[in-house]
Amino acid sequence: MENIKSYVQQNKDRFINELIELLKIPSISADSAYSQDVLNTADAIKESLLKAGCDKVEICETPGYPIVYGEKIIDTNLPTVLVYGHYDVQPADPINLWDSPPFEPVIKTTEKHPDGAIFARGACDDKGQMYMHVKALEYMTVNDKLPCNVKFMIEGEEEIGSSSLAWFVERNQEKLSNDVILISDTGMISNSQPSITTGLRGLSYVEVEVTGPNRDLHSGLYGGAVANPINILAKMIASLHDENNHITIPGFYDNVEELSLEERSEMAKAPFSLEAYKKALNIEDVYGEKGYTTNERNSIRPTLDVNGIWGGYTGEGAKTVIASKAYAKISMRLVPNQDNLNITELFTKHFESIAPKAVKVKVTPHHGGQGYVTPIDNIGYQAANKAYTESFGVPAIPQRSGGSIPIVALFEKELKSKTILMGFGLDSDAIHSPNEHFGIFNYLKGIETIPLFYKYFTEMSK
Amino acid sequence: MENIKSYVQQNKDRFINELIELLKIPSISADSAYSQDVLNTADAIKESLLKAGCDKVEICETPGYPIVYGEKIIDTNLPTVLVYGHYDVQPADPINLWDSPPFEPVIKTTEKHPDGAIFARGACDDKGQMYMHVKALEYMTVNDKLPCNVKFMIEGEEEIGSSSLAWFVERNQEKLSNDVILISDTGMISNSQPSITTGLRGLSYVEVEVTGPNRDLHSGLYGGAVANPINILAKMIASLHDENNHITIPGFYDNVEELSLEERSEMAKAPFSLEAYKKALNIEDVYGEKGYTTNERNSIRPTLDVNGIWGGYTGEGAKTVIASKAYAKISMRLVPNQDNLNITELFTKHFESIAPKAVKVKVTPHHGGQGYVTPIDNIGYQAANKAYTESFGVPAIPQRSGGSIPIVALFEKELKSKTILMGFGLDSDAIHSPNEHFGIFNYLKGIETIPLFYKYFTEMSK
């Protein structure tokens, strides 16, 4: 019986190569052109779970992409950990900004990753972080160290709203019954300072279409006389924030939880350099809601961002045209207590109400999810903290994340259990961006830390 | 010796087929992918001018696309008409909105064109209208009816700013010397009511780039904390008009010529139905500068329109990203006395000044041109009016157009002669739009009318 550190050392090259193979499959759930690749990735996950020691693995059909379910039940009297992850990835564009092809993984060292990092779409979000759990299971089964039951639920639609997962969870509460849910799909402060995400933002994502004239028009003959959908869309988007960058949608802030000054000063203790932040993004200044710090703006405050906009002539050269239509994709990050369906409704009502009579407006909801907060006094959190403390040598700091994992709120509602977000990525890993990567150190450290969580969670559950 | 009407009747099928062949060549000057097609079109124009009876035709090299020059000098004591036109066309996108491929011409009847119209990019703007002059020359030479000298100058960069034409004209004043310049690149009120364009708007066309963070970011982790270039661009664009739709660029209106109430009431006499206008565009309401009518807004008032906008994720589905950059193409239509270079400078200074510190802004001028007004008391205008009156049975109405033919101001400056804009297209011909077309009636009527202009202009010049 060897310990996890030495097992990882002996097998690390294989662990890295297995992940690289997984990263070669372009499982982009948002683009139907890649649907076969998404399905192939599900098969690959199934194989890896069987190899890692699951007794039973199924590819569960859903209205959308399948969910890979696996389990190893050693004793029904022992607690059960449900591991969640996703095998789909974000689209890779803009492709031209990648230094190497997004689905041809390469290992390069960076300032933050002197031991090297794997560069590929999905390296961190979430194939790399999900696969740590598969390898941790392998270690525990091979070395007879699995102290409790484990279930895996790996989905293929996280990047497009997890609607099939919701469908699946509602129908399989018995099968998915567990004592704690474990997810690695978030980040930590640094490789020397682990952190546990205790809060997530919710999400409301819509697409808007503004229609002016029934056809593209010559901007000379019609310019100035008809509503230009692009100008109107710009006006409408601009009006969604006031001069203090508060969002102007009536009712938007009604249920926003205001943190106490104590809580805010607790948060402010997390190490943060505004200068380093600006330097890393090459910006002269930050920008956001008046009255809040950068770390508050991206975690405890709701936001509204345009994620994409298009209309008219966008090719080479100049075309003097007034477009018939203009479009934008707009997402709102929500804080706990803001209901995403309600926010989507408020947005739609408001957006339609501010449209001038000279245009027609269509709002199409994409996907959304609720925010979430984990209390730090439950044994799941404490087991995770002990695991981090042992493998990193310092305790983890509880942190609110600005990101959204909509299904976490769903899990609590349907499965009545808490979710522990043990993230091993760094904010600088460029998830959702060109040149996404995941540190070799982080990947292996994750594999080392996870079995410790199982150990302490089982102990504390007695 | 036969008259023009019967000559057109006998040859109309050939006239139509020759134009259709010309329209099959995708001479899109704005897109370098089509450069060989643009050059091939120049060759085709050269052949057609030789066939039509020019003594000498040259393909004149320039820094850009060549200019086709042709001439027939019958007597240096007689006046000389310089015909200008362009053989390049606008890009065809959005391709998917065309009912038939833009470069596979088809003839269909429409409500406004019961005798049929040719549908193709460039059918009206300007291959169809330019080719009327070639066929009018053919009639005059074949039937020995050419009463004066004629020169042709057909360029290939009108849709991208005519910069090579300016270069060419400045260097060939002797070769291009003339008594009047004749252009068919505008429209008329209707097939029963001809009009002559006496005013054109100038143009300033710029492309703007707004850069926020140095890479695309995850909108959850950074949303609300950094300037989103798309939101900022929308804000900046929105701020370019005030609540009365006046343009807010300081100094923008300084040189705008204010028309007298008399002039405005003269203009107001042109037949116009706001209801029909709205119905034709399927809009609930018009939209524009407070205090001016629709026909004033698109002719005697300057405008600012976004012709294209893009940034972030515009593909299928949803991507929660904050883009690093956002772009827009913006054009300003100018009225006489507004200098386009000065306006471009004012725009650039203003746009840079309103950018928040959190983003970087780049403004790139595309092309531009001055506005122009033709007095209706010169013999060129009067000859054109007599020609219209004879071939349509009613006199032409003088009209200001909102469009821009930047080189008209250049011609007056460099060649010291007036330009007569004899347009035969209709506003409904969808130039610069999908399904551009040109009526068979208009095409043939143009060929009929042009020789009458030569006749009366020569008579009046005596």
From TrEMBL, chains A, B:
One annotated GO biological process: proteolysis
Residue ranges of every copy of the Peptidase M20 dimerisation domain listed in the record: 199-357
Pfam hit, one: Peptidase_M20
The organism's place on the tree of life at top rank: Bacteria
Keywords linked to the UniProt accession: Hydrolase, Metal-binding, Protease
Any GO molecular function: metal ion binding
NCBIfam families tied to this protein: PRK07907.1, PRK08201.1, PRK09104.1
Protein name: Acetylornithine deacetylase/succinyl-diaminopimelate desuccinylase-like protein
